[in-house]
Structure formats: C-alpha cells, structure tokens
Amino acid sequence: MEELTGKQRRYLRGLGNQLKATVYVGKEGITEGILKSIEENYNTGELIKIRIERGCPLDRREAGQQLAEQTQSHLIQVIGQTVLVYRPDPDEPEIILPA
Hints:
By secondary structure, the protein is of the alpha+beta class. The chain has helices at residues 6-16, 32-42, 60-70, and strands at residues 23-25, 47-52, 74-79, 82-86. The protein contains 3 helices and 4 strands; from the N terminus they run αβαβαββ. Strands 1-2-4-3 form a 4-stranded mixed β-sheet, with helices on both faces.
C-alpha cells in the first residue's frame, strides 16, 4: 500500500469533518467484532471515523495504529478520542485524491 502525501491526508481530513463515528471501541479493546464492523463499513464507504471510548485499555494513538494495520488501512488522523482511517476501494474508488 503506497503512502499518502500530505496534500492527500489534508483532503481526507476535510472530508472526515462531516462524518459521524460509526464504530466504537470500548472497554473490550480491539476485538473480532470491531474489526468485522470496520470491514462492513468499508463496504459502504472508504473513509471511516472510529470513536475510542475512555474505557478502552489501549492509548488512542496505539489503538488507531493497530486498527489501521489490522484492516490494511491508512491512519489519517487521531484527534481527541476519534480516529479517521481510509482504505480505497480496489475496484471502484469513490474518493478521488488530489495528486
């Protein structure tokens, strides 16, 4: 998976502002259910906002990194308790990134 440029990350952060968190990581941490939920969300979109609840045993940055690695995604942003991850659709990408 190729790295994203700063311009592309900024563009994705801008798109992420309008999103609502659709996946919540709680006191159980990163489970198979969480990973399955993320995969299901990737079926409907390429950009996902994940909320790391305060009871999560992992640090928010560590959780974001692990989620990105385990789902083969790009970690775009960790701000507050929210993580933004991106994985382009291999067949028909919806989001066209700037060059």
